[in-house]
Each structure stands twice: as structure tokens, then as C-alpha cells.
Amino acid sequence: MPLSELFPSMLWRHFATICSFPHGSGQETALRDQIKSWAEARGLAARLDAAGNLILSKPATAGCENRVGVILQAHLDMVCQKNQGNPHDFLADPIVPVVENGWVHAQGTTLGADNGIGVAAALAALESSDIAHGPLEVLLTLDEEAGMTGARALETGDLHGKLLFNLDTEDWGELYVGCAGGLDMTVHRHVVREAISAAFVQRKISISGLVGGHSGCDIHLQRANAIRLLARLLQDIRKQTDLRLVKMNGGTVRNALPREAFAVVAVPACDANILDLLAQVTQDQFRMEYAGVDESIRVEVSEGGNGSMLRAADTQTVIDLLLALPYGVRRWNHAMPDVVETSNNIGVVNLNGEFETILMVRSLTDAGCNELAAAIEACSRLGGAQVARGNAYPGWNPDLYSRALKVAQTVYREQYGEEAKVKVIHAGLECGLIGDKYPRLEMVSFGPTIRNAHSPAEKVEIESVGKFWEFLKACLKAVPVAA
After folding, report:
1. Which CATH number fits domain 183-393: 3.50.4.10, 3.40.50.11810, 3.40.50.1370, 3.30.70.360?
2. 3-state secondary structure (DSSP) of residue 2
3. ω into residue 115 within 30 of 0, thus cis?
4. Which one of 249, 308, 348, 349 has the minimum C-beta count within 10 Å?
5. Which residues cross the membrane (predicted)?
6. Are 205 and 230 contacting, i.e. CB atoms less than 8 angstroms apart?
7. Which residue spans within 167-306 are E strands per DSSP?
8. Structural contact between residues 130 and 29, judged by C-beta atoms closer than 8 angstroms
9. Radius of gyration, CA atoms only, the chain
């Protein structure tokens, strides 16, 4: 079924166009320019700011000129993840949406509903002729998934609205008024290599088949992390033979739970059979351990490649670091017991020359973020590694009395006869950075139901997209007159 046959057709038509343009982080230019041309052809004001963010605006409809101005905000980039062996080229190939059992997903890749559905809704709001609204702006940012550089570079004076509806959350029926801040960290360690003895053979050990997911929204679901599983298996093998690391890779981005990882190792030829035996036993163990969460974990051993091996001490230290670095939920919030306060994701590991692993710390509080970062630094020092703190972005402090939230709560109550859930999300929204530049801006975030974001299993619920659209239209109509 073509997306344009789904409800609301205008929104889905825009989403289909978005899917036709490669738009991973750092590759959004063609999509952005297409949207800019589309807006200009319809007489809408369209301009790029100094950072390359796209700002569109539409005058108030007749009779609504004195209403408070609203900004609709979403990001143009998507996380690019694909299943092992999938030939999809994210730099050249379009995303191919599939309609199935009430959901839309892609063919073995991320779909980009995060945040393509939000972008599509904003464009549909601009295109629609049946929404009574005050002055309307749309802010489409760049590079949200890889560092929020678009929102970070936003300048004061570019936006004029007083209320902001962020369209980048993923649970229909929930209104978000706060989010976690984030900090990127990179752990690096020098390693010493030596020639592989003739008495050793090389093998490749692979972990795959994991569900993966968003490193913030899904961190509490206890899904497996391929890098951690690989480290556990390597440690078990080292207990039985002189395993040496040759190469290691796992994960692709710091803000996704890694689904795949592999290590090329060297072991004494006389012990090579240990790897095959442990692979099967460990696969069964992992599947039992993650029953109901990650039931398709695969552990495979194949022929290895060429290269030099780490000396024994460095092999052990690399494994120890991956096992000892804090991972997962660090602390739950006391005031909101169902909300994760602080967490860390081990997102990427590389051992092609030196050892490097990339982490992402998230916390609702600066103190929580700094405490966990300090623990990571201490652990790394014990392992002889250096740590660099990278991009950081602030959290978004809740304002339970904002006009944006009041509008959303009132509309939801009128549409559904019950109260919407007001929540804080353990993920990074651009609201924190935007709020730093525009401290008087009143914000709320909402969106349709999206599952397994940042993984090839990403999907968006069709029915919730329709509800999201009707809700957005009603919110725009319900914005009050400026005081």
C-alpha cells in the first residue's frame, strides 16, 4: 500500500518524499534544499540560518493575527542502521517504507520516523488550508542525532514565536516537559602489538542478531549490548587458553544500543576447538539470559584475517575495560520512580590500531552526569587509558505551568475525555539547547508511537500518526490570544 493512501494523506505524502532522500546525520542538505524549494513555491518565507538550519514561516490565518506565535520544531537527520549483510547504501539509496499490520517499517534499515514524521507533520501544517492559527514558524534543524550541532548553533533573534511544539517524542498520549542532558566520552588506550606466532591461528568471533534500540529511551529495557556480550565471551575464552586480540569492532553510533560486534583473535592452534565449543554454549546461555528481550542472539566463529596481536597484558586490559566501564541505568529518579535519571551507553568500540570506545552519558541533572563521567574517568585511569569529554548538551528543566503545556493538556482532555500523561524523557531533545538561547520560550513535546528507534526494527504506528495529526491541528487552533 502506498503511504499516500494512509491517513492523514498529506502528512504521509510528505514522509514518503523525506524517505526518498538520503538524510543521515551530516547528509541532510539535499532534503533540506528540496523542502526549502517546496516552501518557496507555495509563497512561504524560507531561509537558512548561519548553521544551515531551515526556518519556514506562514502568516496567521484571517482573524487570528493577535494569537500567540507558535514554532513547530523537528530535526531533518536520521540514525542510519542496517542489518548485517544488508547492501543498503545510506549515502545513495532511498528508504523503502513497508506497510504491515498497522505499522510502517523499512526493509532491514532504520525507517527515519525519528524524526521524519515530525518533519512531515510540520510541513503538512504549513500546507493545510483548514487550520486556524496565529503566526506560524517551522524550525528544521540539522545533525540532531550526531551532536545537536544545528540547535547548538541557533542564534538569538532567528525565532519570534512564544510557544514551541517539539515533534520529536515517541509515545502517543504522553506530553513531555523535560529531558535528559547528554555528554559524549571517548576512552583511548595505547596497546603494544607483537607478531603472531606460528603456533597460533586466527579466528573471527561475531555477536549479532540483537534488537538494539535508542540508548536513552530503551536503556531501561535490559536489552543486550553486543560489545558487552563479546567482552564476556572473550574473558571466558581467556580463562581456558592464551587468547590474544588482533582486531575488534562493534556498534556504529554512540546513541544506539549496539546490535553487532566482532573480534579477530589469535589462539594456540591446539586450543582452536575451544572457540567453537564455547560459542554454542555461550549462545544458548545468552538466549536464556535475555529470554523475552533478546531471543535471537547469534554467536559465530569463522576463519580470521591477517594482522599482529596484542601482547597478553594489553589483551586482558582491553577486555577488563569493556567489562568494568559503567553501563546501563545508573540511577532512577526519586521524585519520578519510573523515570531513569542517569545512564551510560557503550556505543562503539574499535581496535584497528589503538583501542577506543565511545560512550554516551545521559542524566536529568548536571550532578548526575558529572558523577558518572568521573566514575568513567576513574575506571579508565585504572586501566591505563585516557578519556576525552566531547559534545555536551543541557537538559530541559520542566515547566509545569507553561502555556504550551496548558494548551496541549486542554486539547487532549477535550478529545479523549481523560488527562494526558505529563512526563520527562530520558533522551536528548533539542528543547534544552533552544531554551538556553530563548529562555522565555514555553515548550512541550509530543509525537506518535514509534518503537525501536535507532535500530533496523524501527516502526511507527499508523493509527497513532492520525491521532497525532488531529491533536496538532487542534493545538494550533487552541493557542490563546497574545496578552
Report:
1. 3.30.70.360
2. coil
3. yes
4. 308
5. none
6. yes
7. 174-179, 181-189, 193-194, 200-208, 213-214, 244-250, 256-257, 261-268, 298-303
8. no
9. 24
What nine digits make up the cell of 448? 506518535
- Do the Cβ atoms of 224 and 298 come closer than 8 Å? no
pLDDT of residue 335: 81
> Using CA atoms, how far apart are residues 436 and 326, in angstroms rounded to an integer?
30
* 345 within 8 A of 257, measured Cβ to Cβ: yes
Q: Which residue, among 396, 473, 434, 456, has the nearest Cα to 113 in the 3D structure?
A: 456
Burial state string for 69-85 with b = 16 or more CB within 10 A and e = fewer than 16: bbbbbbbbbbbbbbbee
Q: Tell me the CATH class for 3-180+395-478.
A: alpha beta
pTM equals: 0.88
For the chain, give percent helix, strand, coil, nearest 5. 30, 30, 40
What residue type is 112 in one-letter code? G
Residues 6+ apart with CB under 8 A from 140: 32, 35, 53, 54, 55, 56, 73, 74, 75, 76, 119, 122
Cα dihedral value 322, 326, 328, 333, nearest 10: 180
SS3 414: helix
The residue type found at 341 is E
CA angle 441, 442, 445 (to 5 degrees): 120
Catalytic residues: 77, 144
- For the chain, give every domain's residue range: 3-180+395-478, 183-393
End-to-end alpha carbon distance in the chain: 47
How far apart CA 112 and CA 208 sit, in angstroms, is: 22
- For the stretch 90-103, pLDDT in tens is 999 999 999 999 99
Give the residue ranges of DSSP H helices in 165-311. Answer: 226-238, 272-289
Average pLDDT rounded to a whole number, residues 365-379: 96
| pLDDT range class, residue 23, cuts 50, 70, 90 | very high
User: 385 exposed, middle or buried (CB, 10 Å; 0-12, 13-18, 19+)?
Assistant: buried
d(CA 226, CA 197): 29
CA contacts within 13 A on the Cβ side of 249? 5
Amino acid letter, residue 364: L
Tell me if domain 3-180+395-478 and domain 183-393 are identical in fold: no
Cell for 457? Answer: 526494527
Separation CA 74–CA 23 (nearest Å): 14
Q: Average of pLDDT values for 231-238?
A: 98
Q: Which residues pair with 58 in a beta bridge?
A: 136
Cell readout for 15 is: 514522509
Sheet holding 54-58, edge to edge: 45-48, 54-58, 136-141, 70-75, 163-166, 442-445, 174-179, 421-425
